[in-house]
Specification:
Blueprint lengths: L1 E2 L2 E13 L5 E13 L1 E6 L4 E6 L10 H12 L6 E7 L9 H16 L6 H11 L5 H4 L3 E4 L4 E4 L8 E6 L6 H6 L10 H4 L7 H4 L5 H7 L1 H12 L4 E4 L6 E5 L6 H6 L1 E6 L2
């Protein structure tokens, strides 16, 4: 059995406050995109995880997909061994949620492949224990996220028919580095309200709070955003804490200069 874990982008991101537990409260909108990994589950004598595609740091047993399998095995003794094959296409450390998507899809895939009949609410509980945004990928629809990025409110938002260009330079930004450049502040206007306004207004009102600090340290990322706007993007932003940048266009575009220099993915939004 095979599935295709997809990425997400952040439409706006406000860092609202520092929490007593050391984390930050944020407000953002998660939107799914069709940039996808490939995950396959087949029967095996013992559990194994095989990786291909974009190279990942660390040992296979520490991969979040392996953690998802062990979590299910812990709570469901009837779970049989299987081999999981993960082919990585979604860039890592890009603010796209690729690892969280892999884990969420692994939970669903194993549940379906082995007919465990775990209800969605329980899968969401498992996903939440694996990562703050992991639960988002189980339902895969636009949400307003707050708290640590793990409290979701469904929103009526469709970008179907718009064309997205996703660009990632060869720059790694750690979460600690991204947060070091921000000053938490409650925004004057709620993102939940702003996102309901016409997309043509987003450029002037919806921002990613990580951009200022990241752009100062990595001007190349700022230049990518500026190039997307220069090429006619209706809205462009860094996703999450970076380093990927996306541009949303009213029609299909072919940006050869960016395509030749960086990781580049483009498609129509659904």
């Amino acid at each position: 059995m095979i599935c295709f874990p997809n990425a997400k982008i952040n439409l706006g991101l406000d860092i609202v406050a520092k929490r007593p537990d050391g984390y930050h409260n944020i407000e953002t909108v998660f939107y799914p995109i069709a940039c996808q990994d490939v995950l396959e589950c087949v029967p095996a004598d013992e559990f194994q995880l095989n990786l291909s595609g974009i190279s990942l740091d660390g040992k296979n047993e520490d991969n979040i997909v392996a953690k998802a399998y062990r979590l299910l095995a812990q709570h469901h003794p009837q779970l049989k061994p299987c081999a999981l094959h993960l082919h990585k296409n979604i860039p890592c450390g890009a603010g796209l949620g690729g690892g969280s998507a892999d884990a969420a899809f692994a939970l669903k895939l194993i549940n379906d492949a082995q007919h465990l009949n775990i209800p969605m609410e329980k899968l969401e509980e498992y996903a939440s224990s694996l990562g703050a945004d992991c639960r988002f990928f189980l339902r895969n629809q636009a949400v307003f996220a707050e708290g640590k990025g793990d409290e979701f409110t469904d929103i009526n938002l469709s970008l179907k028919g718009y064309y997205i260009v996703l660009v990632k330079p060869d720059i790694h930004i750690s979460t600690a580095e991204a947060y070091a450049g921000v000053r938490p502040e409650k925004p004057a206007a709620s993102l939940l309200q702003l996102i309901q306004q016409p997309i043509e207004t987003w450029k002037e009102h919806i921002f990613n709070g990580f951009e200022k600090g990241v752009f100062e340290k990595h001007p190349e990322i700022k230049q990518i955003k500026e190039e997307l706007y220069a090429q006619g993007a209706v809205y462009a932003s860094m996703s999450g804490s970076g380093s990927s940048v996306f541009g949303i266009f009213a029609q299909e575009v072919h940006l050869q200069g960016l395509f030749e220099k960086y990781f580049y993915w483009a498609d129509f939004l659904q």
